[in-house]
């Protein structure tokens, strides 16, 4: 075609991720069957799928859940589902997901004018903006009042509870998937804006993709003590597993509060959202704030014993959106139990304490406390660079950089870092859902 004067676009990226070399992704995985399943479900094998395929058991239930949310029978029209998802992804400046769902929206018969700004969408969809904003950044502020304004008989336009729960799960899914996209440094798809160029390749200058997270020098510094960090972590995990010391309840609460209020800096640069998403975001300046800023009255902690997924959230979602509770539960279970019994260069390792510390630390950032968990373990097992990565990806994903990704777990495999991203994504999703489902439960009483 180029001989006939037709310009042929060329993919800019050399692989699915700006952080993980393509050869590593294809060397460590992927499972062919799961890629075929993805192709049949999505009509393509996208970058999310390629990176998630490092963990086939997880990817399989992720695809089933996403397919049910977007494609199967449910209370919301199909084009609305994609529009709600792109509204949610826009909160985290995630042009990757905004473009994916914009295409899905148009394919489902959506009106193109809606994509030019929120004011072109129906009032009913725009009425989700407050809930979208809180779910994305400060879900602990969601109350039954927010639910009442959308579903009570006088609300105009009115949401049914089934429609609302579908919308809430879609928004929370897109927010947490934005964390994964940024946390793994996913490149734009070849057909996305920023994913292709018409310029010939130049060895001296490659056009920079507008979506890729800040490309600082991501090469890992060769650090002699990197291997020592792994040995120290292994030793600490064994010691914690053998520890028999009993803590008082007061001490457990103190350790939680200490962890929750610890100052973990995230990147201070707050770039403006790209033009592609700016017109889909209301109040872009509204962001995550530490659950308990120093000197301020903090909202009450949510005790997991008072409102948990297992005892409360699961049944409520299943009642209002049949089968979705089951699908989400399976995904939470898979990510919580996912292990290959290895850590960096070691095999035969029980990583349960480390995985639990990661999950509980993310819930701690969202103000959720487990009475029976000693938060002292978080400080013992999660070194500072890991906490910086986790807090950035969970709370400010759009600020994730190559440097933050490469600084933590320097001797671990990329697949292990992707595993950490899956834990962040699912723990964050569950935390946001718990606050919203609790508000719905209070409204229904």
Helix and strand arrangement:
Elements: E1 10-11, H1 22-28, H2 32-42, H3 47-52, H4 56-70, H5 78-91, H6 95-107, H7 123-126, H8 129-137, H9 144-151, H10 161-183, E2 196-197, H11 226-242, H12 249-261, H13 275-278, E3 302-303, H14 309-320, H15 324-337, E4 342-343, E5 346-347, H16 352-365, E6 368-369, H17 376-381, H18 384-395, H19 402-407, H20 414-444
Parallel strand pairs: 3-6
Antiparallel strand pairs: 1-2, 4-5
Helix pairs in contact: 2-4, 4-15, 5-6, 5-10, 8-10, 9-20, 10-18, 10-20, 14-15, 14-20, 15-20, 16-20
Give a short overview.
The protein is mostly helical and 445 residues long. The protein contains 20 helices and 6 strands.
Structure description:
This protein has 445 residues and is mainly α. 54% of the residues lie in helices and 3% in strands. The strands form 3 sheets. A two-stranded antiparallel ribbon has the order 1-2. The protein has a two-stranded parallel sheet with strand order 3-6. Strands 4-5 form a two-stranded antiparallel sheet. Strand 4 and strand 5 form a beta hairpin. The longest helix is centred in the last third of the chain and has 31 residues. It is globular and about 60 Å long. The N and C termini lie far apart (65 Å). About 5% of the residues have low confidence.
Pick out its properties.
445 residues, 54% helix, two-stranded antiparallel ribbon, 6 strands
